[in-house]
Amino acid sequence: MKESQNNQMRNVLVVGGAGYIGSHVSKALALKGLKPIVVDNFYSGHRDFVKWGPLIEVDIKEREKLAAALRGVEFDAVIHLAAHIEVGESVQNPEKYFLNNVGGTENLLSVLEELGRNVPFVFSSTAAVYGQPEVDLISESAPLKPINPYGESKMQAESRIRAWSERVRAPVCLLRYFNVAGADPECEIGEAHDPETHLIPRLLMSLLKPSTDFKVFGEDYPTPDGTCIRDYVHVWDLAQAHLAALHYLKTHPGPHVFNVGYSKGFSVKEIIQAAEKVCGLRVPYTKAERRAGDPAILVADGSRALRELGWHPEFAGRLDQIIAHAWAWHKSN
Ligand SMILES: NC(=O)c1ccc[n+]([C@@H]2O[C@H](COP(=O)([O-])OP(=O)(O)OC[C@H]3O[C@@H](n4cnc5c(N)ncnc54)[C@H](O)[C@@H]3O)[C@@H](O)[C@H]2O)c1
């Protein structure tokens, strides 16, 4: 997106902007001359990740407080990332996930409608909406069959957003991210979930703190080395996909869906080997049973985003860079 093309879009509400992905999106917006206005309740976000624009501290589950907080705020687009994201917790406590991920989204949409702000809207969805597809590359037209409440809550949120888009005629992009990893190449922000359940940060944390157990769940999958294969997307490339989506929505109204992935998978063992090379350390791990509901292979067909959004990822296939940026961030934090 060129600077001259930003003239009609200045302020972008970044809901969940204090989190891992939202803070990278905020930085990417600011670098393009846009103003990110972060909306967050700090459930899992970080105050020191809000550094590229103003903050509105509010919980999107509280509809009236949200309406009051947004009244009078000038914004031209919304990027909605706020959610609970732990698959395992969603199985233990599905209600919490539906309340926040579906209920919070409904509140946000109804407040936008009440305020007459039917602006371009980009939503953080997930590959978890596909469940366990039996195909090598998952395209956007694959059936939606989530296998856990987290994926189900995201699928329901997508459907609420589509209905809102059609009702109020607001342009919408639903971005289905695959496995997001890495950190800001300038090392200002990075991945800091608590608890951390994602593979690469857990691996790196086990190197920094040898008391942290690093487990490989299942070595008997029908994959070349027996471990699960995933499509790891650099968080900075993902942030750029949001900019591309905002630009696309200026001329392409209507709800659109895009996978955000590199169409290339790496196994857990390949991640371990790459990390050993990047970090110059051996990665000790313990073998564990498969986790329920973990598909053997989840790799995007990411061609639509490349073709239609004009997304130009910088780190596709660069697992070494993804790990190097995450490693730099974890070492300095
Ligand atoms: N991390 C991944 O690999 C991944 C993959 C696919 C999809 N996603 C989606 O991307 C989005 C961001 O994920 P993340 O990894 O940055 O998570 P994160 O937990 O770091 O960020 C989520 C942010 O939303 C905020 N939030 C949550 N509930 C809120 C509420 N009720 N009101 C206001 N703010 C609230 C949190 O405080 C946090 O700042 C999520 O919607 C997630 O489902 C993430």
How is this structure best described in words?
There is one protein chain. This protein has 333 residues and is of the alpha/beta class. It has 2 domains: 9-181 and 232-262 and 301-313, NAD(P)-binding Rossmann-like Domain (Rossmann fold, 3-Layer(aba) Sandwich), CATH 3.40.50; 199-229 and 264-299 and 320-332, UDP-galactose 4-epimerase, domain 1. It has helices spanning 20-31, 63-70, 87-92, 94-114, 149-168, 199-208, 235-249, 268-279, 303-309, 319-332, and strands at 11-15, 35-40, 55-57, 77-80, 121-126, 172-177, 179-181, 215-217, 229-230, 232-234, 255-260, 266-267, 286-288, 297-298. Strand 5 (121-126), helix 5 (149-168) and strand 6 form a beta-alpha-beta unit. Helix 1 (20-31) crosses helix 7 (235-249), helix 4 (94-114) packs parallel to helix 5 (149-168) and helix 8 packs across helix 10 (319-332). The chain starts with 10 loop residues before the first strand and ends with a helix. The model is unreliable at 1-7 (pLDDT under 50). Bound molecules: nicotinamide-adenine-dinucleotide.
